[in-house]
Amino acid sequence: MKNKADLTAKVQAIITMGEKVLATESKGFQQQTFVNEQQFHDFRISGLSLLSRVFGDNSQYYLRFKSEVTSPGTSRTKRGLGILSAATTELQDNWVETTRGAITSEILADFMAMAEIHIEAGNLQSGLILIGAVIEKHLRNLCLAGNISTTNQQSGSASPKKPLQLTGEAYKKKLYDRQQHRRIISWLEICDNAALDTMSDISVEQVQDMHADVSRFLAETPY
Q1: Count H helices, E strands: the chain?
Q2: Taking the model in full, what pTM does it have?
């Protein structure tokens, strides 16, 4: 499975980063050992970002890494490496059951079913907001599977990329064609207007057609 191999490689890259942090070890007061502070924090941010995207913010891997890899010392760095090593083993042994990617399709299908109920009841705004959330989540996972970063790194912090940026990068990497890219941009504009309560006149039939088109897009672009 491409997802499995790609994500395992990403975790391994961060493990390599951590090993380089350990190589900067130096002794301090009362035999305490320290590592390069900047490299340590780069390692910490990268580890948290990946564990969050792959396993979720409530997973034990993410929570343990966040609480234990806290200060630039040898022990904390080694703890981080141990957590990442365990995460790698789980990805290799039980990818389908242990990552968010495996259950995403079911969750998104549930959201699309909820959107359909709202649309049929005439609650077009609610239906479109749900569809917009589905499109954004699908784009993030599709980009992750396609080895495209879903965050922007600025001054040592990571911020999620906007859906328009994600679809642009997915198109450039040829995850889908220009026509599909343009459809996605149109969908995002409609859903954003619904979220901002600035919807123009749109019929139930048009929203139903959009719902069907988005459903086809989900089916045609698995990850």
Answers
A1: 9, 4
A2: 0.58
